[in-house]
Amino acid sequence: MKTSIQFVNLKTSETLDDYTLKKLKSLNKKYDTLINAEVFFKKENDPKGNGKICEIELSVNGPRIFAASNEKNYELAVKNTISDLQKQLEKRKGILKPYL
Fold first, then answer.
1. pLDDT grade for 2, boundaries at 50, 70 and 90
2. Each residue of 33-48: pLDDT tens digit?
3. Model's pTM, two decimal places?
4. How many CB atoms lie within 10 A of CB 75?
5. What is the CATH number of domain 2-81?
6. Is pLDDT above 80 for 93?
7. Residue spans per domain, the chain
8. pLDDT reported for residue 49
9. How far is CA 9 from CA 1, 2, 75, in A?
10. Which residues pair with 85 in a beta bridge?
11. Which pLDDT score, from 0 to 100, does residue 95 have?
């Protein structure tokens, strides 16, 4: 799976890159239909203390899958976004399975 990680108006972080790649690699092991992943990290001023945004768009067979999270730190945002993607992939796998 090809992965592209972009930091929008932020400094790049090697540890965040490694953490995200590790999570995506485990997702790729479970779902072999993944083609491409585009990850965006953004920061937003939020009075509630959140504002660390992670958006991931996956290219798979069929329409693309997208998920985003707005949390208090980037690691938690990545974790929640991957969890949302996993739910969507499970649902799609259940729909496609009878046709295989």
1. very high
2. 899 999 999 999 878 8
3. 0.88
4. 16
5. 3.30.160.100
6. no
7. 2-81
8. 78
9. 26, 23, 18
10. none
11. 64
The whole-angstrom separation of Cα 95 and Cα 36 is 21
Give residues with Cβ within 8 angstroms of 50, minimum separation 6: 70, 71, 72
Q: Which residues contact 82 (CB under 8 A, 6 or more apart)?
A: 23, 24, 27, 56, 67
Q: Which residues contact 75 (CB under 8 A, 6 or more apart)?
A: 16, 19
The whole-angstrom distance between residue 6's C-alpha and the CA centroid of its chain comes to: 12
Beta carbons of 42 and 71 less than 8 angstroms apart: no
C-alpha Rg value of the chain to the nearest Å: 14
Please report which confidence band the pLDDT of residue 96 belongs to, taking 50, 70 and 90 as the band edges: low
